[in-house]
Structures are given as structure tokens and as C-alpha cells.
Amino acid sequence: MESRPSAGQRLVYFPHAGGSPSFYRGWGEELDEFEPHAVCYPGRAERISESPATDLKAMARQIAAALRPLVESRPTAFFGHSMGAIVAYETACALEEDGFGATHLFASGARAPHLMRGDAAAAARWDDASIARNLVELGGTDAELLRNPDFMELVMPYIRADFRMLSAYTAGDRAPLGCPVTALVGASDPRVTAAQADAWGESTRGPFRRVSLPGNHFYLAAAPPYAVVREASAG
To answer: Can you give the pTM of this predicted structure?
Structure first.
């Protein structure tokens, strides 16, 4: 968090599976019209001593409770990438159920929630080897790091928990969000198609837009979509 009393809006960042707030380092400096906040999931970074979460909806409700004072006091948008988009969505749903809400949801690199079919058996099949292969395929992790036993010992517990938690997730019946939704997707993302990103339109009764950008699943690592965020928030 960086306090910016003069900023008219806040922007809360939700990391991907295995991610931490550091993924969004530099965004706050570029998007200086927002007061930046980044969610840190249990089991990593400053929360490394905690056990990783195992229930995505329960974690989102806890995040919603923590964010409520921010949402109450100033317009607040959410930006989530991959698993983070689903966590941001669930957090926005929890807030709206309590009479509050985000001003905009940016859902990046994720299928729409209603397309997620939770499967406990499939979730249990995520072992360290399959997770490592997936991380390399998606382009979010250096393959050399995955061969470092010290690195793997440190990060694999929470990465494994995230993968399994997301695989077990089912949206269930949800009222559409009241806020606008912008879905962002890499044009060559191997896991999320334009049609699956378009399906986010069913998650809102507000305005919806899908933006395709050059790159793969982690398109935003090389070219963060600052212009998209700025344009949508200004509208």
C-alpha cells in the first residue's frame, strides 16, 4: 500500500496462482492517479508463516472484509490476473452482498467464472511435476528456477495449494455484478480464448468490454496494460 490522499480512486491488485504483490511492482508508479493496494494471499511474502488457503471463496470473503473500509471511503477498482481475476470477482461479489462494491473489475487472463467446473479429483492430481510443467508452459516462471531445490522448497507449498484451490472452484449461482467489467486476454494465451474472455460479459449487468493484447498468458509482464486501465477508469 502507498497512501495517496489526493488520488481520486484506489486500485487493488490480485496476483495469479503462486503470485505475490511483487508481481505488480511498478504499476503504482505508472498509474499514479490511483492509490495502489496489492493483496497478499496466505503462505507467501510477508504472510509466509501462515498456511496457504484451500478454499477460494472463503479466502475472498476474508479479503472483502479487509477491503471494506477502503471501498467505503473512496471509489475502488479491482485488477486480477489469472487466478487473481477469479479471487477479485469473488471479492467483489462478497462486497456487493453486503451493500458495497468495486467501481470496476479488470479480469485478466482468466475464463469467466461460470465456465469454471470445480473437480476435487482433478485438483488432487496437481503434483509438483505437473505444476512445474504448467508454469513453464504459461511462461510465468523461469525454468532454471524450477530446477533449484531451495526455491522449490520455499514456493511449492503455496503454489500447489493455489493450483488445487483454483481447480476445485465452482462459481455457483451468482447475481451479476453491478460494476463494469473489462476482460483482458493475451492473443496467444494457450489457456484462455477470446470466447472464454467474452463470457465475462455474463458476470455483470453493467458495461462490458473485452480487450485482446499481444502476448501469451503473462502478456502483462512485458507490457502492462496501463492504457486500458486508465481509459476504462476515466470513462
So the answer is: 0.93
Q: What is the pLDDT along the chain (235 residues), one digit of tens a residue?
A: 678 888 999 999 999 999 999 999 999 999 999 999 999 999 999 999 999 999 999 999 999 999 999 999 999 999 999 999 999 999 999 999 999 999 999 999 999 999 998 777 677 678 777 877 877 777 666 566 667 777 777 888 899 999 999 999 999 888 999 999 999 999 999 999 999 999 999 999 999 999 999 999 999 999 999 999 999 988 6
Residue numbers annotated as active site: 82
Nearest CA to 233 out of 102, 93, 104 is that of 104
Domain annotation covers residue 180? yes
Q: What is the CATH number of the domain that holds 90?
A: 3.40.50.1820
β-pair partners for 204: 177
Q: Does a structural domain hold residue 229?
A: yes
| Structural domain harbouring 17 | 9-116+173-234
* Residue 38 in grid coordinates: 496489492
DSSP symbol at 8: S
